[in-house]
Amino acid sequence: MKVAIALTQTKRQEFAAGKTRHWLWAGGSRLEVVAGAYSLLPIPASSTSHFDDDFCAEACPSCMPARRWHCACSCYVGVNNVTEQQATVKYGTLFLLLIWCVVPRAYANVQPLQSIQRVAEAFVEEGLAATGAKHLVSASPLDPRLRLHRCAVPLEAFAPHTNDFAARTTVGVRCTAPVSWTVYVPVSVETEITVLVLRRALARNARITASDVETQVRRVPGTASRFVTDMASVQGHRLRRALPAGTALTVDVLAPDILVRRGQQVTLVARTGNIEIRAKGQALSEGAAHDRVRVQNVTSLKVVEGVVESDGIVRVDL
Q: How large is the average pLDDT for residues 78-98?
């Protein structure tokens, strides 16, 4: 890119007609004076020149003794009979013109990071739409230093691992043309639902009753599937660990009640067609509903394995 500003005819005559001189600028450009016009041009990589003080002294002897600027700038100020303030305004305007021309072009082919974040959020929202709950989805800001070529086709979002969105999940966003690239966007999910909350603290292995809980509308991390929303879900369960008052109950803190304990006298039940056989037994292990336990028949002393059906009842296969 070349930006040139012509000088007046009078000033042109102050330079040797057709004479070309170059000075280096601190910014890595050179000031080229050709027949009274000056331009900002890139300096060749092989150039090792320094400020041409000899030419500055020749063109403007009065500028050199106490100059505080670079040679080219001082020479311009002296030859054109302008103040340093006027020259500052002119050079500042030229610099801003360069930025105005170059910067928009540099960013024209860069994909906006916000568009990538919006695609990731829309992908998660679409996947959660079937649940019917109110979800709040937010993509984490991407590194502002990231520069990706602008995509000419619609961006594609995908789940790298699973579509079961957790409180913190990762969504892949990719472009296929004209330049292929893929970015992984962290996305957080919150859900506004009615949950069961403990009224008081409960100890480990405690059973939960209706008087122990109350319903509250809360914004919770993740999806609604992790949280207990009705009393039917806690029937026949106990707490895996102690919980303080105000805790929203989740399915992972509930454990099925132990229906058969080791050493307990149980009833062995075997069925074949319309025939049912019952026998007394002693549990050698413990288990909740549908767990498999070992039981010794107290009559034959034979050890069998069965499935816990209910409190004290173990079903065995013939």
A: 54
